[in-house]
Design goal:
The chain is an all-alpha fold and about 100 residues long. The chain has helices spanning about 5-25, 30-60, 65-80, 85-95. The protein has one domain (about 30-95). The protein is flat, with a radius of gyration of 19 Å. It is built from four helices and no strands. About 85% of the residues lie in helices and about 0% in strands.
Length: about 100
């Protein structure tokens, strides 16, 4: 695939993604709210649990970087599990 074809394909995908809410007679705001619900409700907590699981596995296998993995996993989990609160805080601040 040439560079021009890749660029055209990328632009077409972006145009399709922006047109989907209009084609479904939905507003962009409701589409973003749905995306927020899916991300905060299922995907981000699963990523946090997987990160903690990886850090625990690293710790139990004696990896020399296990302490750093564990610290990053805990910080990431706090951010991911607190994402709903962070989003609500930003929404209240903006209004």
């Amino acid at each position: 695939m040439s560079k021009n074809n890749q660029y055209f394909f990328f632009i077409m995908i972006l145009a399709l993604l922006f047109a989907l809410p209009f084609a479904a007679h939905a507003s962009v705001e409701s589409s973003l709210m749905g995306l927020k619900t899916v991300l905060l409700g299922s995907i981000l907590p699963i990523c946090a649990v997987l990160g903690l699981g990886f850090a625990a596995f690293s710790f139990f296998t004696g990896n020399p970087m296990a302490k750093q993995h564990l610290i990053y996993a805990v910080i990431g989990s706090v951010i991911l599990f607190g994402a709903q609160s962070i989003v609500d805080l930003i929404q209240r601040t903006v209004r």
